[in-house]
Write a structure and sequence with these properties.
2 copies of one chain form a homodimer. By secondary structure, chain A is α/β, with parallel strands linked by helices. Chain A has 2 domains: 136 residues, 3-Layer(aba) Sandwich (Rossmann fold); 55 residues, Arc Repressor Mutant, subunit A, CATH 1.10.10.10. The first copy, chain A, is 48% helix and 14% strand. A 7-stranded mixed sheet of chain A has the order 1-3-2-4-5-6-7, sandwiched between helices. In chain A, strand 6, helix 5 and strand 7 form a beta-alpha-beta unit. At the A-B interface, helix 1 and helix 10 of A face helix 1 and helix 10 of B. The structure holds a DNA duplex.
Chain lengths: 220, 220
DNA sequence: TCCGGCATCCACCTTTTGATTGATGCCGGT
DNA sequence: ACCGGCATCAATCAAAAGGTGGATGCCGGA
């Protein structure tokens, strides 16, 4: 399915939607679901993050439905940041399959107005789009819960470097290999790991990987 | 979106399709994409694996498009097995987001006729459905490649017990904890691990977890 | 300006893991 | 009946990882 432009004249009060997802089936599904709403107007759908950034610049777009994982290089979160950085930018509603902390935080930091899971029922989807169009934030219940948990917990946020080290641990590297890869001494790697263990409440590298994966701090 | 039955009379030579996916958006998308083909007739779509098994028993279903991961308890692979076990059963085309070895093998063992990724372009999808209707197997190129690799490689299949041990390792347990959990001595756990490392071509527990995860041998 | 978090490093010691070798019993297929 | 794979256990040694207790320099906010 190639990007498609609507040829019908937009109704005056319609909310203009841009769909960005690399799955043709999902684009078609969103289009089918959203077009049943009389006040929605899907003005275009695009298969890449780059095209989304480009197309979102046009004034007929009020809300962008953005996938987070594209097959290509640019991430949905980067595209979101690029779109929301402009003045008078449309609101971005992130719509993704996964609900890992890392993804959610990246999207919110990038300026997303809402965050929904793809398994959301159509009514929830429509409600979120209307909320986004009005500039109100909309979070899926699952996501909201997760964020609550996160706030409640003493925030086990890892520093940039710690995350980097832990990711390499998850990739199966030894401390020696990690130290070479990051141009550090093994002492430093160990030191980072000690801090990571403390923050995650574990006492071994495998347990740290399990905990971080469960909390979405690193990619699997 | 609730399950929907078509009210139009089926065209004589049409291929009857049953869509099974827990995402409303995906069901709508598949419906939209497949209904553009004149020789396809979507006779129903269902949101659960259980309903898929039930509905597939009706004679108007020629091909079932089956998701592998449902929110609920029954797995797509189990539903596939249940459907294909019956005489005169429709062909099942597995359609999923992921391409892990474990998923693929489970689907093939369950009797799936084909295996496609959800990001497949509509033409590929239609071609696969026609192939499935004719009883011919259809694999996405990515999947086919992966299977080739798997055949070529010395088959790193782990035994039941080994998989069990490795899963606990991935959950972050120490050898001592694993031995208690499985009522083994630590010596046995170590022995299993040695075999696992050899099969996976690695030399540490974290690397084994990384390798097994990459090959879909254990659940993340 | 001072403090705290971050990132970097060192030394010493303990515990866990991995490598090697070898042994037993069970089960399924030829 | 035999062989091979699997699961089970043991002992020993070497290597890697974890625990403790430091130290330094940088940077940004109170």
């Amino acid at each position: 399915m190639t990007p498609r432009e609507s040829t019908t004249a937009p109704a005056p009060a319609a909310i203009g939607l841009l769909l960005a997802d690399d799955h043709p089936v999902v684009r078609a599904g969103l289009r089918a679901v959203l077009e049943t709403e009389p006040d929605f107007e899907v003005v275009a759908d695009v298969p890449t993050a780059e095209e989304a950034v480009e197309r979102a610049a046009r004034p007929d777009v009020d809300v962008v439905l953005m996938d987070l994982q594209f097959g290509g290089r640019m991430l949905g979160s980067q595209a979101t940041a690029a779109i929301t950085a402009r003045a008078g930018a449309p609101h971005v509603l992130v719509l993704t399959t996964f609900d890992t902390d890392a993804d959610i935080l990246a999207a919110i930091e990038a300026g997303a107005t809402g965050y929904l899971l793809k398994d959301a029922p159509p009514e929830e989807l429509a409600a979120a789009v209307r909320a986004a169009a009005a500039g109100k934030s909309a979070l899926a219940p699952t996501i909201a819960l997760r964020l609550m948990d996160r706030m409640r917990a003493p925030a086990a946020a890892l520093s940039r470097r710690e995350t980097e080290v832990l990711q390499l641990v998850a990739d199966g590297l030894s401390n020696a290999a990690i130290s070479k890869q990051l141009f550090l001494s093994q002492a430093t790697v160990k030191s980072h790991l000690v801090h990571i263990y403390a923050k995650l409440g574990v006492d071994s590298r495998t347990a740290a990987v399990a905990a971080a994966t469960a909390r979405g701090l690193i990619r699997r």
